């Protein structure tokens, strides 16, 4: 193996790959915020006693979980403009990732809320707390502690899912790597480097997950 040639290859590709990594992190963080913003109200809607409230949330969750993210990206970026709804590539990418993550996050939170015993609700009601006060002060703190691992897994998967936004011409890490590979006769080191970067980003968010779990467990005890 020609180590000098390998070093030169990585050095030449480094600026574009680092820039792509920055876009990947931005996309992941923006989609995490968007997914959480959609996931919480969707979970509450699915817990509603009224079918008129539940039905739209159930349809949204079913559609997002039952279709590939890649198809969702194509629909938002390539099909919606045909009916007059046009998004810039960045907005389309973040929107698709947020919609997809929101559906999975809502299910994690809904399951966690349902896991809180009915006795907690009845005890709160007996103390004079209403539905929303009980949900906010009693149920959600317990549910979040249970939901953090599964919610974190969904958010961590966003790091890898950002590689799909390259199909809407956004130069995140994967597209930057493909562009670097196009001018190289030895693509494997570049793809391995990209894989290593994705892995490091995932490890970073896993560490954040463990930190949040410790904080919530201390607060509970």
Description:
It is a single chain. By secondary structure, this protein is mostly helical. It is built from 8 helices and no strands. Helix 1 packs antiparallel against helix 2, helix 1 runs parallel beside helix 8 and helix 6 packs antiparallel against helix 8. The N and C termini lie far apart (56 Å). Keywords: Amino-acid transport, Cell membrane, Membrane, Transmembrane, Transmembrane helix, Transport. It is found in: Cell inner membrane; Cell membrane. This is ABC transporter permease subunit. Belongs to the binding-protein-dependent transport system permease family. HisMQ subfamily. It is a multi-pass membrane protein.
Structural class: mainly alpha
Strand content: under 5%
Rg, rounded, reads 21 Å
What's the N-to-C terminus distance? 56 Å
Mean pLDDT score: 83
Characterize the overall form: elongated
Task: Sketch the topology as an H/E string, one letter per element.
Answer: HHHHHHHH
């Amino acid at each position: 193996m020609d180590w000098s040639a390998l070093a030169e290859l990585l050095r030449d590709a480094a600026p574009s790959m680092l820039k792509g990594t920055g876009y990947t992190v931005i996309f992941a963080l923006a989609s995490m915020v968007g997914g959480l913003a959609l996931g919480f109200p969707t979970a509450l809607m699915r817990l509603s006693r009224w079918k008129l409230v539940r039905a739209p949330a159930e349809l949204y969750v079913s559609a997002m979980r039952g279709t590939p993210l890649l198809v969702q990206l194509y629909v938002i970026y390539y099909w919606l403009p045909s009916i007059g709804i046009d998004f810039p590539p960045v907005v389309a990418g973040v929107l698709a990732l947020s919609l997809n993550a929101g559906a999975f996050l809502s299910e994690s939170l809904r399951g966690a809320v349902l896991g809180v015993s009915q006795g907690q609700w009845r005890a709160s009601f007996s103390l004079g707390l209403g539905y929303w006060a009980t949900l906010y002060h009693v149920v959600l703190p317990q549910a979040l502690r249970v939901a953090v691992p599964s919610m974190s897994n969904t958010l961590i998967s966003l790091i890898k899912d950002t590689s799909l936004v390259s199909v809407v011409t956004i130069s995140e890490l994967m597209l930057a790597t493909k562009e670097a590979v196009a001018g190289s006769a030895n693509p494997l080191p570049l793809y391995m480097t990209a894989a290593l970067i994705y892995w490091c980003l995932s490890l970073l968010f896993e560490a954040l997950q463990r930190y949040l779990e410790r904080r919530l467990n201390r607060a509970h005890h």
